[in-house]
Each structure stands twice: as C-alpha cells, then as structure tokens.
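Thread: Newbie trying to understand structure tokens

Hi all, I'm a second-year student working on a class project, and my supervisor (Dr. K.) asked me to get a predicted structure for one chain before our next meeting. I've only ever worked with sequences, so writing a 3D structure as a token string is new to me. If someone could post the tokens and maybe explain what I'm looking at, I'd be very grateful. Here's the chain:
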Amino acid sequence: MNATEIIKMSVAERIEAMEAIWDSLMIADAKIESPDWHHDVLAERRRRLLDPSAEFVSLADLKIGNKLLRGKRWATSTESY
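---
Reply by user tm_fold:
Sure, no problem. This is what the structure looks like when written as tokens:
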C-alpha cells in the first residue's frame, strides 16, 4: 500500500487501518524506542509541573480561551500586542 492508495480511502477507513497497525504492534510486543528529544520534552514538562510558581488553567477556561482566539488574526512581529 502506498500514499496514493491511502489518500483514496475514506477517513473512517484510514483510521481503521491505523488502529489495525497499532493493534499489530501491541500483539507483536514491539519495543518502540522514544527519540532523545521526546525524553527532553517530558523532562521539561515535569520540571514545569513541579515549579511552585506554576499556574494551571482548567479545561473549561482553556476551551473558552480557544473560542475567543478563533477567527482573530495573530499579530506579526512588527505589530504591538
């Protein structure tokens, strides 16, 4: 199967194919190594979570903020906020 054949599939068919691939990897007990950069990202996220000055946003507030940002044009580097 190649990319051209995959593009011809419906979204539902592509998702089903991805699920089948993941299932086959789990059955085969495949050892998938994470790249070094992934470990770095996780370590940074852990460090930020443990920072006593960290502030958290509820999921509800995050969704509200995302709705407010939709449709707005992002400021360019030459524009002020």
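A couple of things are worth pointing out once you decode it. The two ends are 48 Å apart (CA to CA). The mean pLDDT is 83. Feel free to ask follow-ups in this thread.
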